[in-house]
Amino acid sequence: MLGVLATLAADHIRWRRERTERNRDTLRAAFTAYLTALATAKDTFSRAELSPERVGKGHIAISEHGVYAAQQQLELVAQPALVDKAGHATLSVLDFHDAVVAGHAPASPQYVHAWRAARQTRAALIEEMRKALQRT
Question: Is the pLDDT of residue 125 over 80?
Fold first, then answer.
């Protein structure tokens, strides 16, 4: 009887460990997909040409890079605080897009502000992602 209980306990512990690892892998994959899509969009936007008629329409361009799809994936697996930070990161990249297509030069205060804001929101998001992976 004791042997059966010990085996059941060991199986339960192993099952929990495997489940935790699967959850961590799922989070890691969602985080990587989102950060990759966001970085691709931001890099592309940094090379965008002046186009005042495209100001405020970055949501179309950002969806072409899969950012919204990756963000929706995060909504399914991540905690609300992390999803909120991802939303802020997306918005900051949209603001960066608008600064570039509005014609602000890389040395202009508007461009620098938008670039720094995108960088800072991404850094805050990555910190939240690290915490989530440690908790899992």
Answer: yes
Architecture of domain 2-135: Up-down Bundle (1.20)
Residue range 52-94, pLDDT digits in tens: 888 888 999 899 999 999 999 999 999 999 999 999 999 999 9
28/16: higher pLDDT: 28
**The one-letter amino acid at 111:** Y
- Mean pLDDT of all residues belonging to the chain: 93
Domain boundaries, the chain: 2-135
Question: Which tokens go with 123?
Answer: 């850094």
pLDDT category at 32 given cuts 50, 70, 90 is very high
Q: Cα dihedral sign for 51, 56, 57, 58?
A: positive
